[in-house]
Design brief:
The complex is a heterodimer.
Chain A: E1 2-3, E2 8-9, E3 14-16, E4 23-25, H1 28-38, H2 43-53, H3 58-74, E5 78-79
Antiparallel strand pairs in A: 1-5, 2-3, 3-4
Chain B: E1 4-10, H1 22-30, E2 35-43, E3 59-62, H2 70-84, E4 88-90, H3 94-111, H4 120-125, H5 131-138, E5 145-148, H6 152-155, H7 157-160, E6 165-168, E7 174-177, H8 180-194, E8 198-202, E9 207-216, E10 221-232, E11 238-243, H9 247-260, E12 263-272, E13 278-284, H10 292-296, H11 301-309, E14 325-327, H12 337-345
Parallel strand pairs in B: 1-2, 1-4, 2-3
Antiparallel strand pairs in B: 5-8, 6-7, 6-8, 9-10, 9-12, 10-11, 11-14, 12-13
Helix pairs in contact in B: 2-3
Classes of the chains: A alpha+beta, B alpha+beta.
Chain lengths: 86, 349
């Protein structure tokens, strides 16, 4: 799964979709995930990066990560299938 | 560069809860880089707020309501022109456009006043009543529509439409009806205000996006800025909106200008469905009340319209800022009774 190319992400966690005008806010870990998705990292690369920065375990990460990317998909700021997370 | 002095008459000074485009058009003209404008306001009622906005409007004259006919309008404009030497008139109401279009040649030849309006054929073709045929002609998806003129036709709507449906007035107003009883209610409400016919339109689920645009009458789209409403009033008007980037929609608008040869300002009201289909639900034959957003995005459409009205060639705008917002506000002006008296009794202020 990829984040749409034109999605703008500010340093304060403000996400703007210029094609729909929709905007959202996210917390720092959400920002990190979106940045990694914009860099076209795959699921395991994102996991590695997040586990390196934050104190969490594999199971918690995976559960929260899938919830988060599903939400991004529902908000239509992604390209491709939400299941394509690896 | 020295700005050219020019006198421009503008209608639509009703900056109320369902605002006319006059005040934003004037703001755009005041910010013109090429014109130093004197603004002549043309008002129908003595409580149109623009009349009292002296920093925007230099002088206001009352004009006769559209229903009183084009001869009365011409006589009044001749009188005003005698005092003000108007260069260009920008009418901003759907209901008055018929008269102004009919008078356009006379205004230019006899009073030397320029306009930049669609032809009568263009104006009539995009009318809500004719929109379905218009869509077919120009290759645009339009929700199924039916024109009705009596209660008797409401019962049978269930055979042709699935509820909800949109009940629309000839010029203004639209409400979503979920039952035939609600259709009757809106039929009464809208027809008492705007007359018959009433238009019944298929309800399309999706996001409403609007485009303010300008055509040169030769098939070119001179400018266009699409906007998504962010905050909508109970009258369905945008109280806040944001410019968006949607190339498909811009292509649709560009093709429409090419095919229709539209001349003048225009607002397209479009529904974008979840499946990325675009349905044109309405064409307004003038600038919308949110046209000042286009100026904020780098496209001064009213200025470009005036330049074309004066016979200048204007190159199409190529870019606009995406993610620019407008937020409307209400503001209480204090008005001296003397001013209200003058516009009410003398028809001038």
């Amino acid at each position: 799964m990829k984040i749409k190319k034109n999605i703008a992400l500010s340093d304060t966690g403000f996400v703007f979709d210029p094609s729909t005008g929709n905007s959202f806010t996210t917390n720092p870990i959400g920002m990190d995930i979106i940045k990694l998705l914009k860099e076209e990292k795959n699921g395991s690369e994102i996991k590695e990066a997040i586990l390196h920065i934050y104190e969490t375990d594999d199971v918690t990460f995976e559960k929260d990560y899938y919830d988060f990317v599903n939400m991004l998909h529902k908000l239509k700021i992604t390209e491709g299938n939400a299941k394509e997370t690896n | 560069m020295r700005k050219r002095q020019i006198n421009i008459a503008v209608t639509g000074l009703n900056a109320i809860d369902s605002p006319g485009p006059g005040v934003p058009v004037i703001r755009a003209l005041r910010e013109s880089k090429v014109f130093d404008v004197r603004i002549i306001g043309l008002a129908y009622e003595s409580l149109e707020p623009g009349i009292y906005m002296h920093d925007l409007v230099d002088k206001t004259y009352q004009i006769p309501l559209p229903a009183s006919g084009k001869e009365n309008l011409l006589n009044r404009l001749a009188y005003i022109n005698g005092l003000e030497n108007i260069d260009v008139i920008i009418p901003n109401f759907d209901a008055e456009l018929f008269n102004f279009i009919k008078l356009a040649d006379v205004l230019e030849q006899e009073l030397k006043i320029k306009t930049f309006l669609p032809t009568l054929e263009q104006f009539e073709a995009r009318h809500k009543v004719n929109l379905e045929a218009y869509g077919k002609k120009h290759g645009i998806k339009i929700p199924k529509s039916k024109t009705i003129t009596s209660y008797a036709e409401i019962t049978a709507l269930g055979d042709e439409f699935t509820y909800p449906v949109v009940v629309k007035g000839k010029f203004y107003d639209a409400s979503v009806a979920y039952t035939p009883e609600q259709v009757v209610n809106y039929f009464n409400k809208i027809s008492s205000k705007w007359g018959l016919p009433i238009i019944i339109q298929e309800f399309i689920q999706g996001q409403e996006v609007n485009v303010t645009a300008l055509g040169d009458g030769k098939g070119n789209m001179i400018g266009a800025v699409p906007m998504r409403k962010q905050y909508i009033t109970d009258k369905g008007k945008a109280w806040s909106g944001i410019s968006i980037d949607d190339e498909k929609m811009m292509d649709m608008a560009r093709n429409l200008f090419k095919s229709s040869q539209w001349k003048g300002g225009m607002e397209l009201e479009i529904i974008r469905t979840d499946k990325e289909e675009y349905y044109l639900i309405e064409i307004n034959p003038r600038f919308p009340a949110w046209v000042y957003l286009a100026v904020g995005c780098g496209q001064n459409h009213p200025e470009a319209l005036v330049r074309m009205a004066l016979g200048e060639e204007v190159k199409p705008f190529e870019t606009y800022d995406v993610g620019k917002m407008f937020v409307r506000y209400s503001y209480d002006m204090i008005v001296e009774l003397d001013e209200f008296m003058k516009i009410s009794t003398l028809g001038e202020l």
